[in-house]
Amino acid sequence: MKQLKNNILLSCLCLLAFQCSKKVSNQAPTAVSLIYPTENLLCIDNNITFNWTTAIDPENDEVEYNIIIAKDRALTNIIENRTISNTQVSINLEQETAYYWKVDALDVNNNQGTASETYAFLTQGNIIENYVPFTAALLTPENNSQINSGTVNLTWDAADANFEDTLTYEVYFGEEDSTTLQDDNVATKSYSVSVESGKTYSWRVDVKDQNGAKSIGHVWTFSVN
Fold first, then answer.
1. Residue 154 dihedral angles phi and psi, to the nearest 5°
2. Taking burial as the number of CB atoms within 10 A of a residue's CB, which of 77, 178, 201, 223 is the most buried?
3. Residue 211 maps to a domain
4. Buried b vs exposed e over 123-150: b needs ≥16 C-beta within 10 Å?
């Protein structure tokens, strides 16, 4: 009986030692909030000092920041991609150009946290004039998502550095990768369509102002259950 108790005790000690020796997986830092340039800002200077909040790491690991600046909201036409240890950096950009930016926080183990929001801003030209609206931002349904059949509200957000401009929208919609113009003068940031089960749809929104300046949107897709 004594031998049995000793064996049980030894097994418990071995199990405890094994549990203590297990390495706790390293956690990623928190997402940062973008401070400057703010969303849809018209910057009078093209030498921009980007600034964001400090990320918090659960293990207090050293944190670095990857800033991406692009000329499109999808962040594919990248003009700047650098990793720094500070929460601000000054970058000289082109004048009279729309830009989109975000910041990812990562720790020393390259664990990347949740990405920040993507903000749009515009650098002013030498002469104040009418600027092209920012590219539409997707709201619903999410890109590459699965939804139910029936009537679906396509919704988006849009803005213009010329705050007094009146914006209207051209909505393109279709099955698979093919889209056709549904309405070229939508006044609200939503459009209703009917969708069928088992099909995949694509859609796009172009934003234009009353002066004819227009930004061409990205193509988004969703599938129907």
1. -80, 125
2. 201
3. yes
4. bbeeeeeebbbbbbbbeebeeeeeeeee
Tell whether the model's pLDDT for residue 11 goes beyond 80: no
CATH number (domain holding residue 115): 2.60.40.10
Q: What is the mean pLDDT of residues 151-155?
A: 97
- CA dist 81 to 28, 41, 104, 160, Å? 20, 21, 11, 25
Q: Are strands 145-147 and 220-224 parallel, antiparallel or unpaired?
A: parallel
Regarding whether 114 and 164 lie in a shared domain, the answer is no
Please write down the long-range contacts of 185-189, taking CB distance under 8 Å and 24 or more positions apart: 189/139, 189/155, 189/156, 189/157, 189/158
Domain region containing 196: 137-224
Does 38 reside within a domain? yes
Residue 10 lies in a domain: no
Residues in the chain: 225
- pLDDT at site 109: 81
- Among the residue ranges 13-27, 42-56, 79-93, 116-130, the one predicted with the least confidence is 13-27
What predicted TM-score, i.e. pTM, was given to this entire model? 0.75
Residues 6+ apart with CB under 8 A from 105: 28, 29, 30, 31, 32, 55, 63, 64, 65, 66, 112, 113
Residue 166 covered by a domain = yes
- Number of folded domains that form the chain: 2
Q: Could you read off the pLDDT of 43-57 as tens digits, one per residue?
A: 988 999 999 999 999
Proportion of the chain above pLDDT 90, given as a percent: 73
Residues 119 and 141 in one domain: no
